[in-house]
Amino acid sequence: MKLRTYLALLFIMLLSATALASDKPGEVVPYNSLEYPEWSVRISPYGGKLILSDSPETAPEDGILYQDTVSGNVRVFMYHVNGTTTPKRILATLENPGTEPVHITIYKEGYSGPSKNYMDVGKTAQQNYLDNAGIRQIELAPKEIKVIDDKLKDIKVMTNALVNGIYDFTTDAPVTVKVMMLPMHTDIADFARSAKIQPNDQTKLRGTFDGMDRLVLPDNLYRDEDGPVAIILADNEKDKYVTGIDATDGSAAINYGNYGVFYHLFLPTDSSSNIYYFLNPRGGEYAGTLGIKYRHQKPYSLFTPDGRLSLGSDSAYSTYLGSFDGQESLWFTFSPPGASNLPVRLIISSKPQEPQKVKP
Predict the structure, then answer these.
(1) Rounded to two decimals, what is the model's pTM?
(2) Which of 51, 194, 219, 276 is spaced 20 to 30 Å from 266 by Cα?
(3) Is residue 244 part of a domain?
């Protein structure tokens, strides 16, 4: 082979191998996970209670959409649409049912909406939650009621608009959480004390569930010779949906999709080269935000995808999450976004995929 021809081929090979590594994380690239084997992982629920309020998703009238009395470590995930013809408020309150003061520390929260772009609401609520680093405290006197987030008092939710709130907090005594839709100028505490509980809708996506978080740990270190592999999340087969109780009537509840559950994936590798990661939606259109913590540095969030609202109508495409040095600490934080379809597969590969771009 002539030297000039050899150098040209070498240049093309190097360009192909490094092109994706220079791409911006969050971009959509052609990558289908189905051809790759499942990477064996252990998925372990942990953490406190998840209060899921997503039914009736489209609230047809004023009232309490979900309520329960909880204590300790709690997450509230509320996701509701104003299904009436007049502006409303949709919010959550905290009530002290006891005879001594209760102290509540809200340590993580995210809110988005109101908007008729439902996928954007779910995506943005996750971003706001992952990027939030503030801590605030609420004290409740006996029988006192306060809104979990004061800004919700004045937010006008128009007809068919959606809101999505995620609130993590701890309490030193039981508190009653009520997610409600109510008129704009009604006294919130009076309404909370007298409002009726709204019936469930056909999705039955409400309840109280143990294990608001999941730890995902591979059974083995990933090595270069393993080739591309995938981890499936929220499929209800290898990763079961969480079950609980609808506290309003005592019936069994299933969180179809594990909405409000946050997965913390630790992905150790034994490689001297970069490892590439992709998120491949398998159920349809998907718009979310992923948390990334690398080399023990400050976590950051990444839209999945970035530069466009969603992907997934063609499952041959994935969001490129980035490349990271092997043998370094890497954590991903994932949660099923409101309005998105599931499951998803996370691809791990020692080699970049074909660097063709997909236009937004």
Answers:
(1) 0.91
(2) 51
(3) yes
